[in-house]
Design brief:
- This protein is α+β, with helices and mostly antiparallel strands.
- Helices cover 56% and strands 14% of the residues.
- It contains 30 helices and 23 strands.
- A 6-stranded mixed barrel has the order 14-15-21-18-20-19.
- Strand 16 and strand 17 (729-731) form a beta hairpin.
- Helix 2 packs antiparallel against helix 26 (864-895).
- The chain is elongated, with a radius of gyration of 44 Å.
- Mean pLDDT is 80; it is low at 153-174, 203-213, 339-347, 683-693 and 801-817.
Length: 998
């Protein structure tokens, strides 16, 4: 009992150490669990939402649309739980200029169901549900009416229509028709599209740019009123996928098994079958056209023959009349009446030659008959020409049919191809990577501080330890006094850390995340396993340090422990050998130098602890500086143009005329801009970037006219880059990079995320959904957005070949020779404000789809999520620095109580004692700061390498002010700690402190 009471008394006396260990554990556990818990809560709530709304696991697209046979084949694939055939149509409407939208049929099989936020779901024809983004942009509300116009090329099969049949109908085959939606619409609800969780009022809405191939909005309509038997896509749910977390590798493996099966046999078979359907439909139309033409020609020939027969009868009648008259005259002039009677009673018989001669004479003598004959001959000639022309046309169609219908291509995609899904996943993964790295530093500092504090605690009790061991107490029982002390401090600190880690920090992060994404049903959850392991990690580290301190002392005999520890033997330090410096130092300066360098453990612990805390602060500020300069570097340094204007293809000429007439442009470059994807398939051969790399990135495909390839360098800074270490990259000379016809130039932001480098082979998808394999000729310095630059010639080579044609908005070989330059990069005159105002005024023009001012983007670019995480890290690092300095200062004082008492006996005033002790701590703090500043830059570079976010590359930069802030903050913490330490020095009693144990 006395042993326990003494242990409790000892614990109460060491309350400062207890608080220090508890606070370090609290901060470490909070950092370890907080960022992880916030990301995990977001992951889980999003996964639940996706499951509730039936977000598709696999989506199948076809360049020729999907038929009922395709849907039936997909249902038979092993592992497919549900298949939903989907119909959509692109429409346009007037909303402060021409805007586009996708009319999407709400599926009836429970897949990709929109989430109702206001109003009700549409049920009748003409009713629609819209997104909050549309409500915000349009100012409309539930009950408002809207009239839309279907786009002429909205069908996914429009390019085959003109070549499949002789009559140019709009049907892909004899039975399948493209989807068609009502055009007079009424808004009855506001919904959230599960395929895009971006908050329309958040970061993504401010910085996003949609090119011509992506519609501005999505309208959801019921099946009622939708016509057409051809489907634009098919969405699938995979068996067992809902049971897995959509962000885990196990989910990806489950889905991949099904996509591999589809790619293996179903895809190939249905591609061939679908093309054969198109060929059969084309042949049938040609045969029908031939039969119809033959019927029309036969009818026309019958009419001509009937008219000619009537004409001949009329001429023959005249011939007969004239022949009869001639015979009667001859009889009247004859010798007898019998002969006359016989001649009059019989019709004269004429041979064919004579008759034909008489016919021609009669026709020639009559203008009316001559005209009638000419008309009949002309009609027959025209009919013969039409028959020959039609037959030639049909034969040409038959010959061209196989070449005019492209090979059908299926594109099998998973959730990674959804831009909103991949952006959310990448954001959370990157933030979680920070949460995995920072706790390591906290753990190391916690172990160091625990070792320092517990070693001093054990050393203070060495005589008591010797007494207990001498009385027969076991060394384990004696050590348990300190092990339980450290364990209790860790458990209390860890428990408080779990509260902060699973409630406080996640709540803070989720507030920021909800400003970027809409995540219904978000709630905070506790992870017992992770929380327990988090505390256990720090418990093991701290207990290991405590065991080491106990072993170091208890391995001595009780007699040795009962005697005071012998003072450390005096020795020279290196500075003493530098005579010019040493001789000029004062007495107290020499004492301070000896105290600092003679006690190596204290030097290492203090400098290491301070350096670690300073490095964390610098690291946080480095990430903040890197993010803060992204907009300036991208929109003022890399993008040299001031304005990007984009229009619809049909309005491209009007847009350029409008911009030219305003007189604000000093120089410009016409380009074509499309949204697409860049995909790297995992391969071990290194041809696709890193071995085994895989992934997809949304890109902005920029095609440049062949005659103006050299002008691209005047609008965009072209600098080749190569991967470096510690977050750096090697940047080549400005202007040394040229766009040519041998490959594409990929933005550094996309190349870094996917492991792409010069010489890699990547899969490009253009705005029409056409896929082609392209060579990467170079990687260009780019921080925001994922631009891919391609020459006009190389674009045509990639996307206009027979095997790379797409039925959506694609061009025939004759039309594909010249691209439509639907965008303009321009340099403007005037101030930044006037350029921003001009861009806003352009967006009000009906010919302009989007106008982006680089000046506005540079000033308005923000990254709230990263800024919030950085602020959190800096705050926690500052708290850790304060606790570390407090622990080290108190340990330093407790180790030197007799020394301080001696100084007081020698006549030192309290202020002089303060200065004597604090000067050493300040020098050690300065040494730690000097070491921590470059260490922070090192750690910051390593962390930013892990932040592979979509369309963002973090070019590490630490401003001089950040180094100053980190140094000043650490020194300020050191000065603050002095305010707590000075009273302790004042309370030292020289008499009791100098008593000898002997």
């Amino acid at each position: 009992m006395a042993f326990v009471k003494d242990m409790l008394r000892m614990w109460a006396h060491s309350w400062k150490r207890f608080i220090s260990i508890a606070m370090i554990t609290l901060l470490g556990v909070a950092v370890l669990t907080g960022i992880y818990a916030g990301c995990r809560d977001a992951f889980r709530s999003t996964d639940r939402f996706f499951d509730a709304q039936g977000l598709h696991d696999v989506q199948v697209l076809s360049t020729a649309g999907l038929s009922n046979g395709d849907i039936a084949a997909l249902r038979k694939v092993n592992g497919v739980a549900k298949v939903q055939a989907e119909r959509s149509q692109e429409v346009t409407f007037d909303l402060d200029g021409r805007k586009s939208a996708t009319m999407q049929e709400i599926g009836t099989n429970g897949i990709d169901q929109p989430y109702l936020q206001e109003g009700r779901m549409p049920k009748k024809a003409g009713e629609i549900a819209v997104t909050r983004k549309f409500i915000r942009d349009s100012g409309k509300r539930i009950g408002s009416r809207l009239t839309v116009t279907p786009e002429s090329a909205s069908s996914d099969t429009s390019d085959t229509n003109d070549t499949n049949g002789a009559d140019g109908t709009n049907e892909t085959n004899g039975t399948d028709e493209a989807p068609s939606f009502p055009t007079k619409l009424t808004i009855v609800g506001v919904v959230l599209d599960p395929q895009n969780l971006s908050n329309p009022d958040g970061y993504s809405a401010m910085t996003s740019f949609r090119s011509t191939a992506t519609t501005d909005y999505t309208f959801f309509a019921p099946s009622d009123g939708v016509t057409g038997t051809l489907y634009t896509s098919a969405t699938l749910l995979v068996k067992g996928a809902a049971a897995e977390s959509t962000f885990d590798e196990s989910y990806e493996n489950t889905v991949k098994q099904v996509t591999d099966r589809i790619d293996g046999t179903v895809k190939t078979d249905r591609q061939k079958a679908r093309r054969q359907e198109l060929l059969d439909a084309g042949n049938k139309k040609i045969a029908d056209a031939r039969a119809e033409a033959d019927k029309k020609f036969a009818d026309a020939q019958s009419q001509i023959d009937a008219n000619r027969q009537q004409f001949n009868q009329q001429v023959d009648q005249i011939v007969s009349m004239q022949a009869g008259a001639a015979a009667a005259g001859a009889a009247a002039n004859g010798a007898n009446a019998g002969a006359a009677a016989a001649a009059g009673a019989t019709t004269p018989q004429l041979d064919e030659t004579t008759r034909e001669t008489i016919r021609e004479t009669i026709i020639a003598a009559s203008p009316e008959l001559t005209q009638a004959k000419q008309q009949l001959d002309q009609a027959q000639s025209q009919l013969n020409e039409q028959k020959a022309s039609t037959e030639q046309t049909l034969k040409t169609k038959e010959n061209e049919l196989k070449t005019s219908i492209p090979q059908v291509r299926w594109y099998v995609q998973d959730r990674q191809s959804l831009g909103g899904f991949s952006a959310l996943k990448s954001d959370l993964d990157s933030i979680q990577s920070l949460g995995n790295a920072f706790p390591i530093v906290f753990l190391l500092v916690a172990v160091m501080m625990s070792l320092t504090a517990m070693a001093r605690m054990v050393e203070e009790d060495r005589s008591l330890i010797g007494t207990y061991v001498g009385l027969g107490y076991g060394r384990l029982a004696v050590a348990s006094r300190y092990l339980l002390f450290a364990l209790l401090a860790c458990l209390i600190g860890g428990g408080l850390g779990l509260i902060a880690g699973f409630l406080g920090i996640p709540a803070f992060l989720l507030v920021v995340l909800q400003g970027m994404y809409v995540m219904p049903g978000l709630r905070l959850e506790y992870d017992w396993l992770y929380g327990s392991l988090g505390i256990a990690l720090f418990v093991v580290g701290v207990l290991a340090a405590t065991i080491y301190a106990c072993v170091q002392e208890m391995r001595q005999t009780p007699a040795s422990l009962l005697r005071p520890k012998a003072p450390r033997a005096g020795s020279r330090i290196l500075l003493e050998r530098i005579r010019p410096v040493w001789n000029r130092m004062g007495f107290l300066g020499k004492v301070t130098a000896r105290n600092i360098f003679r006690f190596k453990s204290r030097l290492i612990m203090t400098v290491g602890g301070v350096a670690g805390c300073t490095a964390l602060i610098v690291c946080g500020l480095a990430i903040n500086d890197t993010v803060a300069d992204l907009g300036i570097k991208q929109y003022r340094d890399i993008y040299q143009y001031d304005l990007m204007v984009v229009s619809d293809d049909s309005d491209a000429s009007a847009m350029r005329t409008k911009v030219a007439s305003d007189g604000r442009v000093t120089s410009s470059l016409d380009v074509r801009i499309e949204s697409g994807d860049l995909t790297v398939a995992g391969s071990g051969d290194g041809d696709s970037g890193k071995a085994g790399s895989s992934g997809s990135e949304s890109i902005q495909l920029v095609a440049v006219p062949e005659k103006h390839l050299s002008d691209l360098g005047e609008m965009v800074t072209l600098q080749p880059v190569s991967s470096g270490i510690l977050g750096t990259s090697g940047v080549g000379k400005t202007g040394s990079l040229k766009l040519d016809d041998d490959g594409v130039i990929v933005a550094q932001s996309a190349a870094s995320a996917l492991g792409v480098k010069a010489g890699s082979k990547v899969r490009l998808t253009n705005g029409d959904g056409v896929q082609a394999t392209a060579k990467v000729s170079a990687v260009n310095r780019n921080l925001i957005g994922s631009d891919v630059y391609v020459s006009e010639t190389y674009y045509a080579k990639l996307f206009d070949s027979k095997d790379a044609k797409n039925t959506k908005n694609s061009k025939s070989s004759e039309d594909s020779e010249a691209l439509t330059w639907n965008a303009m990069l321009a340099k403007l005159s005037g101030s930044d404000t006037s350029q921003t105002d001009y861009a806003e005024s352009l967006e009000e023009d009906s010919s302009v789809m989007k106008a982006v001012s680089c000046a506005h983007m540079a000033d308005s670019f923000k990254f709230d999520l990263m800024g919030a995480v950085v602020a959190l890290i800096v705050a926690l690092a500052g708290g850790l620095a304060l606790v570390v300095l407090f622990t080290l200062a108190n340990t330093n004082v407790s180790e030197r109580v007799r020394e301080m008492a001696t100084l007081k006996v020698l006549g030192f005033f309290d202020r002089e004692v303060h200065h004597y002790v604090n000067r050493e701590m300040m020098i050690l703090t300065v040494m730690g700061v000097i070491l921590g500043l470059p260490l922070g830059r090192l750690v910051g570079g390593m962390l930013t390498m892990a932040l592979n976010m979509p369309s963002l590359y973090f070019e590490v930069e630490v401003k001089p002010l950040s180094y100053v802030i980190a140094a000043v903050a650490t020194m300020a913490f050191a000065l603050l700690v002095q305010l707590f330490v000075n009273p302790v020095l004042d309370r030292i009693d020289p008499i009791s402190s100098l008593k000898s144990v002997e």
